[in-house]
C-alpha cells in the first residue's frame, strides 16, 4: 500500500467517524431529546422572562405519558417555522372554561378539548 493508500485509509476512517457522530446526533435529536429557546413572560414564574434554553424529551409523547401541568413545546399556529412553549391544562375529553378577554369583560366560554 503506497502513500496514497495510507492517506485514503485515514480520510476514510475520519469520514466514517464523522458520519457515525452525525447519525448519532440526528437520531438523538429526532427521537429522544432536543432543545428549545424560550423568551417572553407567558410561562412566568416557571420559566423566566429572559432568554433561556430548555432541554426537551420526546419519549413521553410516543408512549402517551403527557399529563395536566406538563410543559409542552408545539409548533406555532401563526408561524409554523417557530415553536411555542405552553403548559398543558386539559386532555382529550376535558371541559375547559376560560375568560374570553379579561381586560374588557368577565365573559367566560367553555370548550371540550
UniProtKB/TrEMBL annotation:
MF annotations from Gene Ontology: serine-type endopeptidase activity
Ranges of residues in domain Peptidase S26: 22-99
Tagged with keyword Transcription regulation: no
Any Gene Ontology biological process: protein processing involved in protein targeting to mitochondrion
Record-annotated membrane-spanning stretches: none
UniProt entry keywords in alphabetical sequence: Hydrolase, Membrane, Mitochondrion, Mitochondrion inner membrane, Protease
InterPro entries xref list: LexA/Signal_pep-like_sf, Mito_IMP1_subunit, Peptidase_S26
Keyword Nucleotide-binding part of the UniProt annotation: no
Pfam families per UniProt: Peptidase_S26 (PF10502)
Compartments, as annotated in UniProt: Mitochondrion inner membrane
Gene Ontology CC annotations of this record: mitochondrial inner membrane peptidase complex
Top-level division of the source organism's lineage: Eukaryota
PANTHER family tied to this protein: MITOCHONDRIAL ATP-INDEPENDENT INNER MEMBRANE PROTEASE SUBUNIT 1B-RELATED (PTHR12383:SF36), PROTEASE FAMILY S26 MITOCHONDRIAL INNER MEMBRANE PROTEASE-RELATED (PTHR12383)
Official protein name in the record: Mitochondrial inner membrane protease subunit 1
Organism of provenance: Senna tora
Amino acid at each position: 500500500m503506497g502513500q496514497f493508500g495510507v492517506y485514503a485509509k485515514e480520510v476514510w476512517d475520519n469520514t466514517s467517524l464523522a458520519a457515525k457522530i452525525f447519525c448519532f446526533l440526528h437520531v438523538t435529536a429526532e427521537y429522544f431529546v432536543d432543545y428549545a429557546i424560550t423568551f417572553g413572560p407567558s410561562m412566568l414564574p416557571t420559566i423566566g422572562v429572559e432568554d433561556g434554553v430548555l432541554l426537551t424529551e420526546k419519549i413521553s409523547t410516543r408512549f402517551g405519558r403527557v399529563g395536566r401541568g406538563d410543559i409542552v413545546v408545539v409548533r406555532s399556529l401563526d408561524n409554523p417555522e417557530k415553536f411555542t412553549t405552553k403548559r398543558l391544562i386539559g386532555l382529550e375529553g376535558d371541559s375547559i372554561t376560560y375568560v374570553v378577554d379579561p381586560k374588557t369583560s368577565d365573559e367566560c366560554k367553555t370548550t371540550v378539548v
